[in-house]
Amino acid sequence: MDNSFVFVTIFGLLLALGNVASQAEAARAFFVFGDSLVDNGNNNYLATTARADAYPYGIDYPTHRATGRFSNGLNIPDLISEQIGSEPTLPYMSPELTGQKLLVGANFASAGIGILNDTGVQFINIIRISRQLDYFQQYQQRVSALIGPEQTQRLVNEALLLITLGGNDFVNNYYLVPFSARSRQFTLPDYVVFIISEYRKILLKLYDLGARRVLVTGTGPLGCVPAELAQHSRAGECAVELQRAAALFNPQLVQMLNGLNSELGSHVFIAANAYEMHMDWIGNPQAYGFVTSKVACCGQGPYNGIGLCTIASNLCPNRDIYAFWDPFHPSERANRLLVQQMMTGSSKYMNPMNLSTIMALDSRV
Ligand SMILES: *[C@@H]1O[C@H](CO)[C@@H](O)[C@H](O)[C@H]1NC(C)=O
Ligand SMILES: *[C@@H]1O[C@H](CO)[C@@H](O)[C@H](O)[C@H]1NC(C)=O
Which UniProt keywords apply (predicted)? Predict the structure, then answer.
């Protein structure tokens, strides 16, 4: 056998192995935008009351410490990171987010925010969505200094993004107080049309900033969370007005995303139907291993739905059998069920396709 042939073959093999290794090392980047459902701790660095940085938050987190996540343990972005084979995204505000860690992605989410700038004003200093997008741009400049503008653009184009917005525009704006400014300005159907049109602008801005795969979650059943049951429910039935809001918002969101995709000629925006996912276990908690979907694990008052989850609250011993961790946020186990449906759910839950299909498609490019 010719020596040079052997050399070329072995060299080629080494190159191929090297490629596989570097691809395995560099999972696709992941970027997160939105509110408390996906905040990994940005609000810890801000002067705001919207925070989850004290016990018993984080009681089931690997470190058993509060991190700013609104969960007993992992939250939705953590579990998506797990699925794409990367470490959890760091909050953009974290001083640890430097150097190579920037290449993993970043979490820009901030508890309390909404689609509108006037949502969550009572939380004072939070990172509104337009600021989250500014930070995404700033992030890209920082990464450019590290790996150059072309590689940065590639990293962003090939990344997965998650954005979760909308719930607070109802709970912490339109319905925050009776006769709120927005409710005097708009009927509910008109308000939904307005916030959907504002959301569309935000998503187009994300596209302009390089996003090409964006998972967009609709709102859950807003009227069924323990906080709303405590205030509006006599016999445990979901609060009617907030259910009406979710029922108007979610289909219009999907319609808007479909419109954007056909305009852009690509499946950039993927809708996750958080409403249907939640309703499965709200309808039949036992089938999903929960003892209740009405009572929060941590809280006080009816349904443990009054006030905040603090060291003085009732705390359930086994968080895995509660769908809700606190009056507004799912438990880690519920988050796992949500992410499982995002990965492999049928078209009832994911439109136009699920994440495992997307990951298979994207890995072939
Ligand atoms: C929200 O605030 C930002 C920054 O001040 C501004 O650019 C944007 O236009 C505002 N959005 C709306 C809908 O008023
Ligand atoms: C979702 O993912 C599974 C693979 O886990 C696949 O079999 C199924 O067809 C997918 N469903 C849709 C609607 O894309």
Answer: Hydrolase, Lipid degradation, Lipid metabolism, Signal
